[in-house]
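Morning!

This is the sequence you dropped in the shared folder:
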Amino acid sequence: MATTSSDQMQRRSISITFIVVGFFILVLGGWLYWYLQREAPKPQGPVLTGEARAYIRAGSLKLSGVEMKATKSYMSQRLVEITGKIANAGQRNLKQVDLNCVFYDPYGQLVLRDRVSIVKQRAGGLKAGETKPFRLAFDTLPESWNRQMPQLVIAQIVFE
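The structure's back. Tokens below.
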């Protein structure tokens, strides 16, 4: 009788082992399937046209006086503000200029890319030879952000 009881316990422990191993294989397989099927992040909105790239390369659009400061909002939430000026040193009037603000973690890994407009048509656009101030406010930055100035990259220019 003792051998039968010990055989049953051994079979039971083997079947539990198979169930646990099967569960982990199933979870790992599901994660691997999800990882391989996910799509690469797509750029936000339209990309720079060749005409816009040439305008930037010619030095026609310049950011200056760019500063960053962090404050606490009235709800004890961190508010990060980036202020500066954008100058249109070119010969064309602009309806809209968008920036990609790229935030990194301390290891240089991308944690957030946020596209924002610093020139808008409804605010009068940006005429040739004109300089305007801009202000960008961020209140939902990831905790892993390295607290450094984000990379500011011109993402789109819409000409008049």
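Headline: The chain has two domains: 1-38, 50-159.

More detail when I'm at my desk.
O.
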